[in-house]
Amino acid sequence: MATTVSLLSLLTLLLLTTISATVTAATKSGEQAPLFVFGDSLYDGGMTFYNGIPGAGAEYWPYGETHFQKPVGRFTDGRVIPDFLDYRFGINFASAGACVLVELRPETIDYFMKIIPKLKEQVGEEETSRLLSKAVYLFNIAGNDYVTLFQNNLKKKIPSSHKNEFMNTILGNITIHLKRIYDVGGRKFAFQNIGPLGCMPSMKYMLGFRGTCKKEPQDLARMHNLAFVAHANKLQTQFPGFKYSIYDFHSSLILRVLSGPKYGFKETQTGCCGSGRYHGDFTCQKKDKSFSVCSNPHDYLWFDAAHTTDKANQQFSKEFWAGSSDVVSPVNLQTLFAM
For residue 249, which of 312, 162, 175 has the smallest C-alpha distance? Predict the structure, then answer.
């Protein structure tokens, strides 16, 4: 308990230092909006180092090897998608293992809410309101919820009625989280939809599947993504001033799985680091496990059992930031920042 409290205190100190720098930069520039990032390990920029859960972060070789030359808390060989986005200041609250329904990690939105009073102390109520309304809130969430659903039903088929109920519960809980931010002034929201779960090395390994992509997880991810588009449209009518952007990560990733060479990837089904079929077992970096690492992550789409490489993340970020309406809509992230 003492260790957890100490880590949380350190995290709070780091966040306050970062928000102070963010406020200073935002006030001086008077132009670009801050970016606040929420999500799971696909976006984790090192937050998991400070959440008090031993072994939860990407803290050992080979993570970080190609860009940072050392582990920096990112579950890839280099950078995650938010690292590539063209913004000047903000805070990344994303933490590995984050879910919508089952909170496996400390609530990152709670961290965000706790810094608002400190922000008001630094710049006052009026400037805080201006910054919060101008900011963009970036989300990548719910993938872990669906993975857990399959983990809990390995030996039985999941009824369609349960899938629908599960999805609706997720959408309802996402709304609760978004409304918390909306109620303190947030108006601009960006979302990365759920990727092709059935193509992940970890999902194929877990389900004992041999092939390119397992159909049932694929169908469930598509169902969620379609429902979320309709849900976002509904939120826009319910919440005055609500603006959003949705990046079709699912389609972009599956295109690279199926047509890797077109995007510069030689290997699109097996992870660079790991063990088991497709390197789908989560053994990468674990000192008490045996795993292998590829010699050139640049050739790989997947770095480990569930996370894409630095090269892939850079490609995704470019689409999210300035892509056309066939991949990010109703506006891209660059346009959302300018609103």
Answer: 312
Virtual torsion, Cα 83, 88, 93, 98, nearest 10 deg = -40
DSSP 3-state of 302: strand
Active-site hit among 41, 95, 245, 275: 41
* Residue 307 designated active-site: yes
First CA to last CA distance, the chain: 44
Q: Is 295 a catalytic residue?
A: no
C-alpha radius of gyration, the chain, whole number: 19
Burial class (CB in 10 A: 0-12, 13-18, 19+), 7: middle
Give the residue from 272, 234, 299 showing the smallest Cα distance to 76. 272
- Residue 122, pLDDT above cutoff 70: yes
Which residues on adjacent β-strands are paired with residue 292?
A: 274
pTM of the shown model: 0.93
pLDDT digits (tens, 9 = 90+) for 310-322: 999 999 999 999 9
CA atoms of 120 and 123, how far apart (whole Å): 5
Catalytic residue among 231, 281, 307, 310: 307
Question: 27 phi and psi, to 5 degrees?
Answer: -65, -40
CB 178 within 8 A of CB 142: no
Over the stretch 215-261, which tens digit does the pLDDT of each residue have? 999 999 999 999 999 999 999 999 999 999 999 999 999 999 999 99
77 is annotated as an active-site residue? no
**Token reading at 218:** 């694929």
Distance CA 92, CA 327 (A): 24
Summarize the chain as % helix, strand, coil (round to 5). Answer: 50, 10, 40
Q: Of the residues 44, 145, 281, 304, which is catalytic?
A: 304
